[in-house]
Amino acid sequence: MLHGFIPPDRFFAYLTWTEIEAMPNKSNVVIIQPVAAIEQHGPHLPLAVDVAIGQAVIGKALEKLPTSVPSYALPSLYYGKSNEHWHFPGTITLSVQTLVATLMEVGDSIYRAGFRKLAFVNAHGGQPQVIEIVARDLRQRYDDFVVLPLFIWRVPHVADELLTMKERELGIHAGDAETSLLLSLLPEQVKMERAIAEYPQGLLDDSLLSMEGKLPFAWMTRDLSKSGVLGDPTTATKEKGDCILASLADGWVQAIQDIYRFQQPQAWK
């Protein structure tokens, strides 16, 4: 099934060109491009974690979305900029230039088809800045194009209520939240007997500098972790994953509706 977690009636690639040509109100139809990565997630999770989470959350949201809101998901972009993980076998990474060119040409194609609202929904923490640059450049290219560089985890959700304080701060990769979600989505692909906890090594407690924050430093995953894990997956459960998935999906229902209603400010007119 090509659509994966996406409802078939909301999967862009199942439409015909004549259906797209005749689609009413195309300027307000919300087109979603899930953007992810194929990269290591420790010894216990598959390489496709980000793909699975991004596609499943958007899929669940589209299932719940009122039928009065027209929205379609494009096929997921499986490959992303993952060079922070490239010392771990299996990671596949695109260069910044390749990712930018790919997303720009997707945007060009969507615009050419008559659509005017495109959301890049990213599920990989290593590339938000790239997607923000693409969105700005597409906005510069087309005066009437609404382009949104979004991150799957930035809608309201309950994950923080289910995680320890240490995990909320440092569990950024293959930890409790991601492992719980995979136990909910792809339990047969999770090898919990191999799960180990490993938090970032070599950080200073009293420094303004951090991995991710107001004053970040550049890092490669092997600088911080021998296993590729940054967090504690040993406390993950399917029940947590079910709760996180449901709350993320509800957040994205609201976000998609907001995009549908949104009109680009144009004070210059």
Which secondary structure elements does this structure contain, and how are they paired or packed?
Elements: H1 17-22, E1 30-35, H2 49-64, E2 71-73, H3 96-112, E3 117-122, H4 128-141, E4 146-151, H5 159-162, H6 165-170, H7 176-185, H8 221-224, H9 238-261
Parallel strand pairs: 1-2, 1-3, 3-4
**Strands across the major sheet, in which order?**
2-1-3-4
Order of helices and strands: HEHEHEHEHHHHH
CATH domain class name: Alpha Beta
Total helical elements: 9
What is the total tally of β strands?
4
- Quaternary structure: single chain
User: Roughly what percent helix?
Assistant: 25-40%
User: What's the shape?
Assistant: globular
Low-confidence stretches: none
By CATH, the topology is: Rossmann fold
If classified by CATH, what would the architecture be?
3-Layer(aba) Sandwich
Question: CATH superfamily name?
Answer: Creatininase
Structural class: alpha/beta
If you compute it from the alpha carbons, what radius of gyration comes out, rounded to the nearest whole angstrom? 19 Å
Largest sheet: 4 strands, parallel
Strand content: 5-15%
- Domain count: 1
Distance N to C terminus: 46 Å
Question: Whole-number average pLDDT?
Answer: 97
Q: What labels describe this entry?
A:
38% helix, 269 residues, 9 helices, globular, alpha/beta, Rossmann fold, four-stranded parallel β-sheet
Give a short synopsis of this structure.
By secondary structure, this protein is of the alpha/beta class.
Account of the 3D structure:
By secondary structure, this protein is of the alpha/beta class. It has a single domain, classed as Rossmann fold (3-Layer(aba) Sandwich). Helices cover 38% and strands 8% of the residues. The chain is built from 9 helices and 4 strands. Strands 2-1-3-4 form a 4-stranded parallel beta sheet, sandwiched between helices. Helix 2 packs across helix 7, helix 3 packs across helix 4 and helix 7 crosses helix 9. The longest helix has 24 residues. It is globular and about 55 Å long. It starts with 16 loop residues before the first helix and ends in an 8-residue tail after the last helix. The mean pLDDT is 97.
